[in-house]
């Protein structure tokens, strides 16, 4: 068992409408293949007083702000008070949590965004899960498939943890900050409350409460307690 890679170590499940998808899973990547069908089931249970069903299995909260230039392919759920900005491209199998920001020209595919996630400027997020209040700086992306199309494995300390998936982007914990123009390589796992420097190329497991400066240069955060 790899405790630091587990759902319980990365995410506060009180901060997503998708809590039930995680019930029978241990590691977050195990739910990626279930997102589409889960949305179809969950969508039919959403209150018509709070959500409007549009198009082909697209549920949009009435309190959400969705620009007229946005392209959304179902199944998808756009949560309460979310903001989806100009020319965002939502390609299906996407849950956008409450209070999220999906920015201009951002592309999402097979993704769960927990509440208050921000992907606000020119981001690509595919086959990934972003935890509560995670933020991706402008131009940062997830890379979700290896160049040789082999199965994705997570590098964890000196081990390779097999996922059995051809496509897997990043599992990003709660309150993670991703610096501008960074690339999260396939199989990246970032623990809660860690910071990734701008222009980083990230691979494997980054522990919680860390500062990632570059490959091989990861330091612990110094937490200052206010008097």
From TrEMBL:
Mannose-1-phosphate guanyltransferase C-terminal domain residues: 72-142
Cross-referenced Gene3D superfamilies: Hexapeptide repeat proteins (2.160.10.10)
Q: Please give the SUPFAM superfamilies that the UniProt record associates with this protein.
A: Trimeric LpxA-like enzymes
Report a single Gene Ontology molecular function.
nucleotidyltransferase activity
Question: Mind telling me which residue stretches traverse the membrane in this protein?
Answer: none
**InterPro entries hit by this protein:** GlmU-like, GMPPB_C, Trimer_LpxA-like_sf
UniProt keyword Acyltransferase present: yes
Q: Which Pfam families match?
A: GMPPB_C (PF25087)
Q: Which UniProt keywords apply?
A: Acyltransferase, Transferase
Its name, as the record gives it, is: Transferase family hexapeptide repeat protein
Its taxonomic placement starts with: Bacteria, Bacillati, Bacillota, Clostridia, Lachnospirales
């Amino acid at each position: 068992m790899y405790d630091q890679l587990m759902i319980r170590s990365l995410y506060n499940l009180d901060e997503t409408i998708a809590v039930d998808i995680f019930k029978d899973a241990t590691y977050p990547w195990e739910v990626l293949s279930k997102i589409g069908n889960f949305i179809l089931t969950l969508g039919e249970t959403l209150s018509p007083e709070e959500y409007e069903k549009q198009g082909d299995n697209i549920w949009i909260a009435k309190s959400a702000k969705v620009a007229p230039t946005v392209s959304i392919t179902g199944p998808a759920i756009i949560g309460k008070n979310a903001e989806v900005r100009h020319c965002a491209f939502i390609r299906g199998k996407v849950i956008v949590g409450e209070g999220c920001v999906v920015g201009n020209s951002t592309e999402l595919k097979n993704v769960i965004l927990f509440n208050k996630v921000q992907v606000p400027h020119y981001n690509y997020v595919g086959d990934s899960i972003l935890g509560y209040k995670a933020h991706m700086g402008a131009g940062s992306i997830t890379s979700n498939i290896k160049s040789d199309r082999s199965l994705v494995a997570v590098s964890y300390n000196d081990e390779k943890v097999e996922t059995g998936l051809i496509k897997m982007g990043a599992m990003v914990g709660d309150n993670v900050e991703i610096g501008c123009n960074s690339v999260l390589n396939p199989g990246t796992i970032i623990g809660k409350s860690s910071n990734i420097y701008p222009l980083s190329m990230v691979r494997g497991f980054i522990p919680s409460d860390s500062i990632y400066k570059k490959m091989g240069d990861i330091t612990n955060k110094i937490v200052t307690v206010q008097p």
